[in-house]
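Below is a filled-in request sheet from our internal design queue. Each sheet records the structural input a requester submitted and the sequence that came back. We keep these sheets so that new team members can see what a complete request looks like end to end.

REQUESTER: design group, bay 2
PRIORITY: normal
MODE: inverse folding
CHAIN LENGTH: 124
BACKBONE (tokenized):
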């Protein structure tokens, strides 16, 4: 699925989950109903401003809307900064420039990130 399709699917899902009608969403976005219909059908792209408004309206991250992660919102600040959890949760899914990392590269990345963490805490 391409990013536009992901966004359309997430938006449709959020509209349904939040029992929101399209007219009220269009009004909150500052667009007319036909513009929202074209967005949902794929005939029109969402602007950056609209994407940010959608995230605010539904209290989700733009990364979630764009399919970059499956976490609609962060539960707390620790969720965004816990490197150990990040490495564990993303084991095997790292890419660079769209190319999968080799096992050796993944191991080096983990070592580098862990080293950064430990260096930081040596000064506490």
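RETURNED SEQUENCE:
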């Amino acid at each position: 699925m391409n990013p536009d399709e992901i966004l359309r699917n997430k938006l449709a899902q959020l509209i349904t989950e939040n029992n929101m009608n399209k007219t009220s969403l269009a009004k909150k976005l500052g667009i007319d109903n036909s513009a929202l219909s074209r967005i949902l059908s794929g005939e029109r792209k969402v602007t950056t401003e609209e994407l940010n408004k959608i995230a605010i309206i539904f209290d989700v991250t733009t990364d979630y809307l764009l399919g970059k992660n499956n976490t609609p919102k962060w539960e707390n600040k620790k969720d965004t900064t816990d490197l150990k959890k990040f490495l564990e949760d993303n084991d095997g899914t790292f890419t660079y420039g769209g190319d999968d990392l080799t096992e050796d590269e993944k191991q080096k990345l983990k070592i580098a990130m862990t080293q950064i963490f430990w260096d930081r805490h040596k000064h506490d």
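SHEET NOTES:
- The helical segments are 3-17, 22-29, 33-41, 48-58, 62-65, 77-81, 83-89, 103-122.
- The radius of gyration is 19 Å.
FILED BY: M.R.
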